[in-house]
Amino acid sequence: MEVLVRASLGVRRALRAVRAPITAAAIAVALASGILLQPLSAIHGIVLGPLALLVTIAVWRKVRAKDSVGTSSTLSADIDVAILSSSLAMACVIVAEPHHDGPLGATIYLLVALLAAFTRPQATAAAVISLLATEALVRPSEWEALALRAVLLTAFATVNVLFLRAEVARVRRAARARVEQELRRIEEDARSYRLLGAGETQKQSEERLARSSVEEIQRAVHYALELLRRTFDLNTAALLWLNEAGTHLRISELSTASNDIHDAPIPIGDGVLGAVVVKKDRVTLTHLKPSSKVPYYEGPNPARVMLAMPILDNEVLRGILVLDRTKDVAFTPHEEELAAQAARYCLRAIQNERIFVQLERAKVEQGKLYEASKSLGAALGEKDVLEAGVQSAQKIAAFDLAAVTLFDEETRTHHVVAATGEIEDLVGSKFGHNGGLVAMVVQNRFPLPYKGEYDSARQIVLGKLFPWPKLPSLLVLPLLLHDRPLGTLILGAKRRGAFGDHVRHTLEVLASHLAVSLANARMVAKLEQMATTDGLTGLLNKRAMLDAAGQKIASAARFGRKLSVLITDIDFFKKVNDTYGHDVGDVVIRGLGDILRRQKRNTDIVARFGGEEFIVVCEQTDERGAMLLAERIREELAKTTFHSADGPFNVTCSLGVSTFPEDGTTWETLFKSADEALYVSKRSGRDRATAAVHGPKSRGERDKPKKRAG
Predict the structure, then answer these.
(1) Residue 234 in contact with residue 325, Cβ under 8 Å?
(2) Which candidate in 135, 612, 613, 676 is catalytic?
(3) How far apart, in whole angstroms, are the C-alpha atoms of residue 191 and residue 184?
(4) Cβ–Cβ under 8 Å, residues 121 and 137
(5) What pTM does this model have?
(6) Is 612 annotated as catalytic?
């Protein structure tokens, strides 16, 4: 079967490749035979109408062709357009002017000019060859005229191609000028972030700019804005930054779906952003009109709701984070809080880089800190950040063991999350907020012991149940984020005086940077989780499920394994909402989600597809196994009792099952088969599971549910 499919696809590709030349040859033969040289009749419409349709389709394919598709695909589209359009043009000219002595002959040259301007040179050459071949076939005796036309067409096409190359060179020069302008803008960014001093010479500025991290700031901020826009279904997420003079805002970083962005300096009190500047507090605007003045849009305002978040540095306004939607859906308190975290994240990224630039002026250890910043900046996950933090500390000070603890403010407990050296077995240990050094450092927000000297007889590091090696040097550094303790970084050394003043301050800066990176990693993880999970059930959302399902189907096809798709839908769910309220309806949805989570295997994926509909994709599961799982889900939901103000109640669900490859070999076909089986369950009385019918059956057979497993 696979061989037949591949052969069929090969034949289709071959026919598509020769479709244009064959069509052009057929039109040339029709012209040479004299069929189209008769007075206008239905035969002209029959022949030229489909040709015009093919030209339209070829142009549409060229317009839709993307660079990512590949050079061969776009070249094929160009050649199809060139051959088919030249054949249509020549046919129209010959039909209208059989003796080729009228003004319409000039349209041939116009067509060649257009093709030379908008298609590849190979396509233009194909068009010229097609035109000359058609004319040679129609007028075989006029060789002198044909030779003259060949010279003229070739010269005309060559001149246009040369002019096109000149235009491309001009565009490249313009692009180079824009790049230079962007470099000047980056330098201005560095000054507005206060990474460069105003009084430095040009050479000093270039050297310091090379060491600064403007690009890292922009990358981090853009990543946060992109996550916000995709997670919150925004039209635009932008960071507006205040210039050095404090008179204008401009777009520092942007993620948008709009093409009407006004990238120009914005007066600080202009439009709806003026309220943020005056209040220095978040402003939420709803029911905006097209006439509302949103200064970063050109023309009518497309936004209907907006959230503007001030970015304050020591109570001084530095910029504004703006989020807007085209849908008139207000921002929830949870979204506002995440936006506030994103604003703080943007400011922390800038402050963090500013710290390192300031240290360059006074510290010999700046190189080590810079390396540490790169390591921590490249680490996005919490585990990677911890590893990068410990490795960076090792480059600053020689120590023999290290540990990182995190503090939970709600439970008042400490958790050892990373450790090296003799204390590796302490990872995972938890201890209370006691009188040990770690607890004291968290409470006082100050490094201990004061001189980095450890006395095992009088000092406890973690707790009495966790003995600490008898090392003479010890330093416990607080991990602080805006004066809020996240945990501690613990370093121990067998050498006395390992943590003196020469490294202590640098390690304190490293601990501060580690705290920022930890907080950023947590925020990124939270945003990524929101982008891939359903907020109500904690299961995968539709987008994440489609990605995972595609991978599992590809794996099943590659290794020849079974795979099943289950779709389940709560019966009469609208009645539940109408009777008990939407809050109780959400409880029912979460209840079904919990049942699916308990019933699935580790290799299965479960997602909320929308509303009360859920999907389970089961690896290495045939139809019988999938039906058994469906029955367990159905039975467990049926015996689950939900509670409301009107008393307890029960709900049921219906399920549809499809299996790879019997019911489909792609996600679309498997989903359609399972969905049809689900509707058979619905039509057959609900509270049942139905497997998809394999192969062509009559409509009555398709509507007849299979016997439930068990």
Answers:
(1) yes
(2) 612
(3) 11
(4) no
(5) 0.36
(6) yes
